[in-house]
Amino acid sequence: MALSRLPVVAIVGRPNVGKSTLFNRLVGFRQAIVGDRPGVTVDRLEGQCQCGARQMVLVDTGGIGETPYGEMQQAIDAQVDAALDVADLVIFAVDSKTGVTPVDYEIAAMLRRSARALLLVVNKAENVSTAHDFYSLGLGDPLPVSAMHGEGVSHLKSTLEAALPDWTASDDDAQKPLACISVIGRPNVGKSTLINAWLGRERMVVSPIAGTTRDAIDSDIPWQGGIVRLIDTAGQRKHGRIADVIEFVARVKAVQAFRRADVAVLLLDGGEGIVEQDMRLMQLARESGCALMVVVNKCDLLSDAEWKYYAERLNFRMRGLPDIPVKRISAKDRKGINSLLKSALKAGERNRFTVGTGELNRWLEAVQIRQRAPLVDGASVRLKYISQVATTPPTFKVFCNRLSSIRGGYLRYLEQDFRRVFDLPGIPVRFIFSASKNPYAGLDPQRDETPEARAAYRRSKKRNSKRQAHEGKYR
């Protein structure tokens, strides 16, 4: 990962002791989902944290030992072990309100065997005297904090700064990714399986239970001397079916992940049909400014005839959308994943498209020759000048004479023609229209006494009288 040279600090402990709340407090914003029941955090979640002059990678993990998930608990424990393998320092979080539990003793014994540098943090300790009970764990002086209220956190940060190993950050630590690729889709379509296939290891928890992934989780892979950032998101169900507050927050986190991404890879299940939620996700990705690719997973379940029917239905449902690339893969069998990654990187490059002002204005002139804007009340709309103002997505400002007269149909025509001319399939192109200001509009010599205003008004009035006389001569 790009952050691997920074010291890594892992937060571990029982479920519902406030690990994610402490994680959010240390990183400075609500990155991890927080809930008042066990099992909210499943995958490990990483973020950067600044403690004084020191910077670190902070890792939030799932609860050890008490969640009622059965087989999934084994996957959670595997994620905790993976976090401990790379950690330079471990924060063992315990709950002052419940006191010392048998599970705390088991975790303490496991951490002693790991021989990692360790800080024992007693959370929910608004009454600092309750932290004394945790001396019995034999892990040194407990640090009382209240992650929810921020009490004791500044002391914890200074202690962390002193306890961190001596690492020197290099320029590679802040390396900008070549592209950010967000994998989106409905629950259980294989998003985490695809991420793991790209990474070549079991980074994400994979389970047949829908909703296993809740946070938007970043992973980096090396690519041609740089890195590519992969963002795994929670499965997106129909909004009306979201009854759990944790699932609702997971949906919000996924939407935020779209806005960080250059490319959105929408994963569909080849064994199921195309539903309205898939179309909504396509629109959501476009509104967020992502380049969009539609990928049909589990294609090994489809015969040639079934795939032909599936593709016809998909093309029919996507009518009206820009030319979105469609690919078919099998993430479980690793078929087509390499070509998909290359195509996603190319889509990211297209989303960062830039073009010179001269070429833009030549296109603007040509597109109006091919199709003029419709007349409004007998008056024509003229697009005068265009310039690029942003990328990701490509955004352009257009100066015109009648802003209110531009209709949605003509705007769609401009977008489609721009994508065709500049070869930008699947890229959301945005136009911002600005009306040219009439320098003589509203001038009144009785109200504006400046000589320049009076002279401009007289020139305007003289031109208008000449034009009216000319029109009357040939009427």
What's the CATH architecture name of the largest domain? 3-Layer(aba) Sandwich
Number of helices: 12
| Biggest β-sheet strands, sense, barrel | 6 strands, mixed
N-to-C series of helices and strands: EHEEHEHEEHEHEEHEHEHEHHEEHEH
Strand % is 15-25%
Classify the secondary structure makeup into a structural class.
alpha/beta
- The percentage helix is 25-40%
Q: Find the count of extended strands (DSSP E, 2+ residues).
A: 15
In angstroms, what is the radius of gyration? 29 Å
Arithmetic mean of pLDDT: 76
Briefly note the CATH topology name of the largest domain. Rossmann fold
The domain count comes to 3
Assembly category: single chain
Under CATH, the homologous superfamily of the largest domain reads: P-loop containing nucleotide triphosphate hydrolases
Shape: extended
- What is the CA-CA span between the terminal residues? 77 Å
Under CATH at level 1, the class of the largest domain stands as Alpha Beta
Runs in which pLDDT lies below 50 for 5 or more consecutive residues are 32-42, 168-174, 204-215, 237-250
Keywords:
12 helices; six-stranded mixed sheet; alpha/beta; Rossmann fold; GMP Synthetase, Chain A, domain 3; 475 residues; 35% helix; single chain
